Amino acid sequence: MLATLRRDLVSARERDPAARSSFEIALCYSGVHAVWSHRVCHWLWHNDFKFLARCCSSLASVLTGVDIHPAAVLGQGVFIDHAVGVVIGETAEVGDDVTIYQGVTLGGTSLNRVKRHPTVGNRVTIGAGAKVLGAITIGDDSRIGANAVVVKSVPPNSVVVGVPGQVIARSRPHLATDRPDLESAFMPDLLGLSLHSLLGRVDELEMAVEGHAHRHDVRPSETGVWLGEDFSI
After folding, report:
1. Is the model's pTM score more than 0.70?
2. How far apart are CA 157 and CA 175, in angstroms?
3. Residues 102 and 174 in one domain
4. Which H helix or E strand runs over 188?
5. Taking the C-alpha atoms of 90, 95, 96 and 97 in order, what is their torsion angle to the nearest 10 degrees?
6. In this structure, are 88 and 153 located in the same domain?
7. Could you give the number of structural domains in the chain?
8. Sign of CA dihedral 180, 186, 189, 193
9. 22 in the Ramachandran plot: left (φ > 0), alpha (ψ -120 to 50) or beta?
10. 83 in helix, strand or coil?
């Protein structure tokens, strides 16, 4: 148990550049407190102290802002950053070295007493506000973009963006020996790329039919910045 708690501290230190010491993390990081509380509640749950486990998890939820059912399984090195509004359901399973940001839900989509929450693989990063719903599997070394809604299983080494979540296979696979994949600023804009492609094809068709393209449609400039005049602002 002590080795597990120590690894939780190391994970937080590695993945949060604002952390200055293990002592600061142990004393001030509510995400670490939530994980530690869950480890106690999980032990109580599996040793037939279920009511006490539920009381413990409810108290931890009030104190940390993270709601983790005591039956959920958390691997080693799980780090919940900022720890506000995170919900992890009863049958959820989270692998090792997973990073979860604020507002994430690992939720269920069934009222039946069966496996109804996600299984998250190792070294997965789940961005702020993402919703991962149902008895689906998120493959190892994948990254879920901020505010994505994921309702189908994701292969290993994938990136998921959008609502509903669209799966993109990595061109450069993330390896187990690589640093944690936290570069959420480099998420692809699938809708934007599709619209740019469609507008380009329309221009080509107009050029072929009329000999010139109509450039008065609403679109961003070459720098990717939209013009305020198009929206009367």
Report:
1. yes
2. 9
3. yes
4. none
5. -90
6. yes
7. 2
8. negative
9. alpha
10. coil
